[in-house]
Fold this protein.
Amino acid sequence: MELELDRLTKQYEAKIAVDRVSARLRPGVYGLLGANGAGKTTIMRMICGILRPTSGEVRLDGRSIAELGEAYRARLGYLPQDFGYYPEFTALDFMEYMAALKGIDAREARGRSLELLDRVGLAGEERRRIRTFSGGMKQRLGIAQAVLNDPAVLVLDEPTAGLDPKERVRFRNLIASFATNKVVLLSTHIVSDVEYIADSILMMRAGSFIMQGSPAEVVRGIEGCVWQARVPVREADALAERLSVVNVHYADDGTALVRFLSDGAPAPELAATPVAPTLEDLYLRVFDETGNASAIDAPGVTGGSGATSDAGVSGTSSASAGRGGGSRANRVSGRRGSHFGGGRNA
Ligand SMILES: Nc1ncnc2c1ncn2[C@@H]1O[C@H](COP(=O)(O)OP(=O)(O)OP(=O)(O)O)[C@@H](O)[C@H]1O
């Protein structure tokens, strides 16, 4: 099974929201990672056949989804960003209603709904009204309805938005458990949502895929650019002014371990050591505050997007929080130079 995006483009008047995006997606989890406004929702809506591309097309196993019509929808599961949950419905009513919309036989629908509610941790809550559900419960119900028809293509648009860290982890595991033999496309601007479960990262910026590859492949492009140095705490903030600081771990002995990006070797007096890059380092580098992305030497890179900088930086700190062992973990978003094409070194 292969889902192909062939020069997929969407233009809204003067705004090109998605610009000739191409990719071949085989079963696996794809993390569509990009800042707000990068074009993630627009791509997903085109993949779901809800939005007609200005040009280009989506094909499933070589056939246009526009031609496939109902046959494609029967193989598609979708959890939109702003999913309407019918607050007065019970979870089971809702699942059965969605099953009916998907053309699933009523006798089969009950059993399948109960089985899925159980799988998403809502056993015992089937008869509760959705309005009494927490955000996490609603999203778990959302994924349950999306897989009612055992789809070959599962599209999840920012499914972890608004979830607390514990629910986010739970949701992540749930997605992984549903992913077998499916193309799962999951959009997010939170690196940790996809860092561990995605087989492939599709890094999106200003309407284009600027990188495609496994997490290990895409981070290879910034090997040698991530450093850490232990400095007195009072110097850590000053460093953030000079360097592209990813995070700072404060220790109890008055020092701080500063992780930062630098294209070349930092000043010797810092005694910095190079460290292995992570997806979050890469994300911060790509979505630098200036928006000055350009080509970066990584596999699958389709080149600089010629991007305008309307894709704002969303400074997530979720990934860094789980890393390192400092007594306090902070993201210091210091003034960042242009990291591409001649960024300043430390
Ligand atoms: N109906 C529309 N008319 C005009 N411009 C639009 C429309 N829908 C989206 N856009 C613009 O297209 C660009 C891509 O939007 P899109 O919603 O796909 O981004 P996104 O990456 O999903 O962002 P977010 O995470 O905020 O949802 C944005 O600049 C947005 O303002």
Observations:
- The first helix runs from residue 40 to 47.
